[in-house]
Amino acid sequence: MIFTMALYLFVLFLFAVFSYGFIDLNLRLSNSPVFALLQKPLELLVFHERPIAAGIFFCFILVFFLLYIWFLRKESVIFTTWKKAVLFLVLVSGVLICSFYTS
Predict the structure, then answer these.
(1) Exposed, middle or buried, 70 (CB in 10 Å: 0-12/13-18/19+)?
(2) How far is residue 27's CA from residue 29's CA, in Å, rounded to a whole number?
(3) Could you tell me the maximum CA-CA distance found in the chain, to the nearest angstrom?
(4) CA–CA dist 31, 81 (Å, integer)
(5) What would you report as the CA-atom Rg of the chain, rounded to the nearest whole angstrom?
(6) For residue 44, how many C-alpha atoms fall within 13 Å in the half-sphere facing its CB?
(7) N or C: which end of the chain has fewer CB within 10 A?
(8) Residue 77, C-beta contacts closer than 8 angstroms, at least 6 positions apart
């Protein structure tokens, strides 16, 4: 189960880096050389190589779906009932939504 969580977090990190390429070309979020180093190849990939970017996105969706199926099969190991699993997912989603809310 630890391997699955680590794999999920790793794929989620890669997806976050991949999605960073879709920002506006004129928008600079940081002057850091690390972001500048990442942004140029990602811009080329997502804006000029759209079929490849679509394939990469499809692979991300497929991996997320397979990890979701794996989690559902192993759900009984973590949660004893489906009600506890749903309650956990609702609480985690609520905390994440509230943490991103700014008034």
Answers:
(1) middle
(2) 6
(3) 50
(4) 49
(5) 18
(6) 5
(7) C
(8) 1
Q: Report the sign of the C-alpha dihedral through residues 94, 98, 65, 88, in that order.
A: negative
Quick check: 74 and 4 in contact, CB under 8 A? Answer: yes
pTM value is 0.65
Instruction: Report the distance separating Cα 60 and Cα 38, nearest Å.
Output: 19
Burial grade of 46 (CB within 10 A; 0-12, 13-18, 19 or more): buried
Q: What would the pLDDT profile of 23-65 be if each residue is shown by its tens digit?
A: 777 776 667 777 778 788 888 888 888 899 999 999 999 998 8
Contacts of 23 (CB under 8 A, 6+ apart): 29, 39
Q: Which amino acid is at 33?
A: P
